[in-house]
Amino acid sequence: MPNRSADAFFDAQIDRLRRRLAEPLPGNASMNDLAPSARSFVPPDQARAQGSHEGGALLLVYPHHGAPHTVLTLRRSDLRLHAGQVSLPGGRLEPGETPRDAALREAWEELAIPSGDLDLLGSLTPIYIPPTHYLLYPTVAVHRERPAFRIQPSEVAELIEVPIDRFVGAANRRVETWTIRGEPRRVPHFVVGRHKVWGATAMILHQFAAVWQDEAVAEAG
Fold this sequence. Notes:
Blueprint: H1 4-21, H2 28-31, H3 44-49, E1 53-64, E2 67-75, E3 86-87, E4 90-92, H4 99-111, E5 119-123, E6 127-129, E7 134-142, E8 156-163, E9 173-180, E10 183-192, E11 195-197, H5 199-220
Parallel strand pairs: 1-7
Antiparallel strand pairs: 1-2, 1-4, 2-3, 2-8, 5-7, 6-7, 9-10, 10-11
Helix pairs in contact: 1-5
């Protein structure tokens, strides 16, 4: 039988999240905490003026095992871009698309998430990704139940479902020194099972966690 109390609580969380996303976002101030050392922030207008590619990503919120979750993908190790990394569903804009269009299309292509069942809540701060010259626009949406995910094996090696609370606070955050493009870099990241979530994905998730925590604090108050 449906748990109406849990459903009502989830709906209340989503209503507060929708309102919070309509307010000013924490932006680079929150993303900087998860940025690798020597990572520069290029403003969106500057990135567009420099001819950056544009892409959309979907940050999906849905109930699972009694808690709000989001979904990530492990990209195949033989892909041309960001091979073997953990990412949000997303990709490059096609002609005539908006960032939201691209996020929804890619979510369907990668994980069979039906766009018609989603409630679009708002957007997070766009982030420029220097190695691939991409300006990525994250869209936040909700599905009222866990979608029947189906991965696209030509792109996705693994589906990763994570409770949103795993990204709030420092319990699942680590910092290591990695060699990136021949140079040692301090790399903050989230630990999700056997995976390390870093770079733009971690920065987006950290910004979202700040927004999510804001609405939780508002509820407590």
